[in-house]
Structure formats: C-alpha cells, structure tokens
Amino acid sequence: MATSSAAGKTIVITGGAGGLGKVIASAFLEAGANVAIFDVHEGRLKETAAEWEKYGDKFITAQTDITDETAVNTFFTSVSAKFGRIDLLVNNAGIMDKFDGVGTTSADMWNRIIGVNLTGAYLCTKAAVNAFETQSPVGGTIINIASISAVRGLNAGAAYTASKHGLLGLVRNTAGFYGPKGIYSIAFLMGGMDTNILDAFATGVNQENMAAVSASNPPFDPAVTYVNLNDAAKYCLFFSDPGAARASNGAAISINNNWPTA
Description:
Order of helices and strands: EHEHEHEHEHEHHHHE
CATH superfamily: NAD(P)-binding Rossmann-like Domain
Radius of gyration: 18 Å
Helix content: 40-55%
Strand order of the largest sheet: 3-2-1-4-5-6-7
Number of strands: 7
CATH class: Alpha Beta
Structural class: alpha/beta
Oligomer: single chain
CATH architecture: 3-Layer(aba) Sandwich
C-alpha cells in the first residue's frame, strides 16, 4: 500500500482512532507520511498511540471534540507547529442516525448528527483552508468521507441524509472558491462499510423505516457489498498527489461496490 507520493507529507484525519479513519491513518504512516489524528474516544486513542509507537515522532493523537471550534483550531495550529505544514485533511468523523424520518427525529438527534457530520466538517475545512492559505507553498487537499446518502433520498434517516447532502454542498463550494489557489476539495460517496459508525444501532433502530430503506434498494449482502477499508484508504493515498486532486477538484467519487447499482 505504500506510495512515494505521500512520503513526507502531513495528513490530518478526524475520527482517526478507529474504523476507516484508523485504516487511512495507518496507510499514510506506512507510506512515510506524518499523521495527526483526533477523536473523541479516549480509549481508542490510547490503543492507537500504543500500536503506532514504532513510528516514533511521525504522529500526533489528541482527544478533541470536532464541534468545538476553539479545540479544532488549537489542534490544527499544533500540527502545523510540529510538522511545518499540512498537506491533506481527511474529514472522516461521522455518526449515523437510527433511520428516523423527519416526523420522528428528535431535535437532540438532529442537532447531534448535523453537529458532527456537517458542522464538524465545516470547522475542520475552515481550519484547513486557513492553514493552506498561509503556509509556503500555498495549497492542500481536503477529502470528505461522504456517503451514497449525499445523493440519494432513502438510504438512511432524515438527519444523516441531510447532513451528507449538506457536506456535498460544502465540498463543491470549497472547490469552486479555493481551487484556483491550489486548494482542492473532493467527496467520497461511500457505500456500506464495517466501521464504528454502526455503533449508533446498539441502542435500537427504527425497524419500520429500515425496512422501507431495504425495500427501496437492491439486497445488501455484507460479504459481497461491504467496501474493504484498505481499498478505501488507497483512494486517499492516490488523492494526496496534488495533480490527482486538482483533476478531480469538486468531484463526488463513488466508492460503493456498485451498491445501489448505478
């Protein structure tokens, strides 16, 4: 999985202590990059830091709330101070709803999903763009882990669907405003994955609505349809090359094992 294009670059990954975020972070470390992750889960951060001791001072881990602008800005400042610049942000942190339609979505659930999935991505995108504009040479790339729910209406509940539609708008707007400055923004429309995002189902799910989602889509067989996390990480490695990122600036790239079928 190693690639020379990532060597020496500095990568920030949100939600990087578990699931897809950790796989992406590990792939970049193996490729010789500097990696900075933050996550809200203290236990996962400690386990990850212990596993990465072999990489010496090539990584930073921090327990940070993605919805806290001051904490986010402090983290980005610390990364730039340690490694000299930031080359890539992967907006990976995200949480799932329970398949509630708008009529049964509580305000607390709505605010939590939008807060993490959209406001958190906005705060990190803002911090990254400000870092990209002030470093020398100017430039950088933002990869946003979106979802097929960013372009489809019935693959999740109202809150998650709205958050990912909003994220796609943020991606395209950022690409338009900042692409001429060498700052690129890309969305990955992910399909099903075996990640920590499924933790949301531990306390229950709206079974009626989940059945409606299932009925509106082709059958989902995890053994066949799940996207391999290591394969998804390869896309991040590829787009760490500024030329590749420039060519796909503003794009929404499907990574879904053709489920739902195109």
